Amino acid sequence: MASREFSLIDNYFKGKGHQRKDVVLGIGDDCALLSVNDNTLLAVTTDTLVSGVHFLADMDPRAIGHKAVAVNLSDLAAMGADQAWLSLALTLPDANDKWLAEFAGAVIEVCDYYGVTLVGGDTTRGPLSVTITAQGKIPAGKQLTRSGAKPGDWLYVTGSLGDAGLGLALLQGREEASSDHREYLINRHCYPTPRLLAGQALRGVASSAIDISDGLASDLGHILKASHCGANLFLDKLPLSQALLGTVSLEAAWHYALGAGDDYELLFTVPEAQKGALDTALAHCGVKHSCVGQLRGGEGISYLNHGQTVDLNVCGYEHNWS
Question: Is residue 154 pLDDT above 70, yes or no?
């Protein structure tokens, strides 16, 4: 079932108003795709992070700056885009020079690392929030979307899952961990890594893709809805870190991986004929990938553990709407 956030988008914004011919893909995916010329698409994405909703009120300003940029670049990665430009709208309760210096330093550091230029934005007074619009370029016809998957395609993820959600639980005092595991897990929450090289390498190989922001189950649901498929998800194949498994039970680890969100790994599908090309495509990206399921006809997600059906009730991250 779609969350309230996506219902609002569908009901009030998606498909409304005049649709320009240069809009190849509008509302409803990780990025909009705009036709720049016959050979290039412009990928555009916007995300807002609000204090107390998307990050803790006392979060390190460097972590806020890093995360704000990284989650937008992750959307570009999910479309297979080459990252290019960024604009920033910052709302602040007051102009704290120390806070601003640390926040801005992190924003510029991440932009420099990924070869992105900050080209503009706005500042205003109010409750702390950060809005970033990121833009990138994709060769026409090579874009990754949520709607290209078919029954029989294999389901993959990059990296490991559940770490960021457990990191948040540690910060909130809901879980406890050893010092070594705690540092790793909290860093995974505060400093996500956008899988840009992997996304670019998947062009022409993956049939669909999305980044994991709301949890594997929820984000897989977006691919299934857009591609009109169901999925078998293999719990025993989920990539779970030693830090995660060393801190919580296996079943709790499944729930963090499936529902906690904030991983910003890539979830993608690959046709049988492209499985051999996948290893070659990702060989130089510096990130592991794991096959965690297969698409099928029908609807919904079936959870399997070593071939046996498991009854799980998984809810992904959802914004609070009153």
Answer: yes
> Is 228 annotated as ligand-binding?
no
For the sheet containing 129-139, what is the strand order? 23-25, 32-35, 40-50, 129-139, 82-92, 117-125
Residues 199 and 285 grouped into a single domain = yes
Going from the C-alpha of 201 to that of each of 78, 138, 158, 236, 242, the distances in angstroms are 11, 12, 12, 27, 27
| 236 annotated as belonging to a binding site for a ligand | no
121 labelled binding-site residue: yes
- The residue out of 81, 105, 139 marking a domain boundary is 139
Q: Is 264 annotated as a binding residue?
A: no
Residue 213 labeled ligand binder: yes
45: annotated binding-site residue?
Answer: yes
Task: State yes or no: 29 annotated in a binding site.
Answer: no
Structural domain contains residue 4: no
pLDDT of residue 227: 97
Q: Which of 84-88, 216-220, 224-228 has the lowest mean pLDDT?
A: 84-88
Tell me how crowded residue 18 is: count the other CB atoms within 10 A of its CB: 5
pLDDT recorded at residue 319: 46
What is the pLDDT confidence band of residue 219, given thresholds at 50, 70 and 90?
A: very high
Range of the domain at 40: 14-139
On whether the CB atoms of residues 123 and 60 are closer than 8 A, the answer is no
Q: Cβ neighbours of residue 302 under 8 Å, at least 6 residues apart?
A: 230, 231, 232, 233, 309
Higher pLDDT, 15 or 166: 166
Is 97 annotated as belonging to a binding site?
no
Of all helices (H) and strands (E), which one includes residue 120?
A: strand 117-125
